[in-house]
Design a protein that fits this description.
Blueprint lengths: L14 H13 L5 H8 L16 H17 L6 E3 L7 E3 L1 H8 L15 E4 L5 E4 L2 H14 L3 H18 L3 H16 L3 H7 L1 H4 L2 E3 L2 E2 L6 H10 L21 E5 L14 E5 H7 L15
Antiparallel strand pairs: 1-2, 3-4, 5-6, 7-8
Helix pairs in contact: 1-3, 1-6, 1-7, 3-6
Length: 292
């Protein structure tokens, strides 16, 4: 990997808002089944099944949530000011601001029409209301934008930034992978046969992926997240104290129960904690070393 590829220029565009929604989904996926369903239609879970994709399960969920936010902006619409005139600015959609902020677009081509209707509510109070045609114009513009490569690049950049913030959150990652494991176990073997030999080769049995050893980049990422210590008991596994550290890269959602060969499903455990956990689903630690 090049030096440039190791660094993120973090713009923090909605980072924590998106991360909060993703965390809510990870910790309580049953409350978001309707919102998530589009991801898993026609055995969409198979997109998560390939081993050790750098485009992790978490990246995919983040992009899905970010896209949902941009789509939702059009229903209001949510608008942000554009231009140097702070008294009478022109208004654009957040997606156009984001594209400009990340250097993926120059000047915006669409401005939100400043049209309002006065509507009397059920309580008798007159309020400003955005006409339907304005909402339709905003949505049509978003539909045009989402078909562009610039928009795909934008979602990738946002996903990298939110992943950077969320990778420390073992509990959220464990919740996400437990849900995906359940989805994987629901796959009809007949559908695998229809999908082709390539998908079938990923599995060792019904709803169980083959064990594939984590690549160096995945082990390195988890090792440094845990600061070289067992995620459960905090035993030092760095090799600085013990020249023969018993380090194990454990699947938080076990492969035997549908777990993925995915970076977000790994934690670092010592031999004793790994043996005790075995193929059980055990709640991961929420203890982290202070920065100072």
């Amino acid at each position: 990997m090049s030096g440039k590829g190791r660094w993120i220029e973090h713009e923090y565009f909605r980072t924590y808002r998106i991360a909060t929604r993703v965390e809510d989904i990870c910790l309580d996926p049953l409350s978001y089944l309707r919102e998530l369903e589009a991801l898993f239609l026609e055995d969409g879970i198979l997109a998560f099944a390939s081993s050790w994709q750098k485009d992790t399960a978490l990246h995919r969920i983040i992009r899905y949530v970010a896209d949902d936010f941009f789509a939702g902006d059009t229903s209001g619409p949510v608008r942000v000011p554009w231009g140097s005139d702070h008294v009478h600015p022109r208004w654009i959609l957040p997606v156009d601001l984001a594209l400009h902020l990340y250097g993926l677009a120059e000047e915006p081509e669409f401005f939100v029409p400043e049209e309002h209707e006065i509507v009397r509510g059920e309580d008798g109070i007159l309020r400003q209301h955005t006409p339907v045609w304005v909402k339709d114009a905003c949505y049509e513009h978003y539909q045009d934008v989402m078909l562009t490569q610039a928009y795909e690049d934008l979602l990738m950049r946002i996903a990298e930034e939110v992943f950077f913030v969320m990778f420390l959150n073992r509990r959220a990652l464990e919740g996400l992978n437990s849900h995906l494991a359940g989805r994987l176990q629901e796959i009809d073997p007949a559908c695998l046969a229809e999908d082709g030999e390539e998908s079938a080769l990923l599995f060792s049995g019904v709803g169980e992926l083959k064990r594939v050893r984590p690549p160096v980049w995945a082990k390195r990422a988890v090792f440094y997240r845990e600061r070289g210590r067992c995620a459960s008991c905090r035993t030092d596994l760095s090799g600085l104290v013990d020249t023969f550290p018993d380090a194990n890269y454990d699947h938080m959602a076990p492969l035997a129960k549908g777990g993925l060969n995915d970076l977000t499903n790994l934690q670092l455990l010592c031999g004793r904690c790994n043996l005790r956990k075995s193929d059980k689903s055990v709640v991961s630690s929420n203890r982290y070393r202070r920065w100072y």
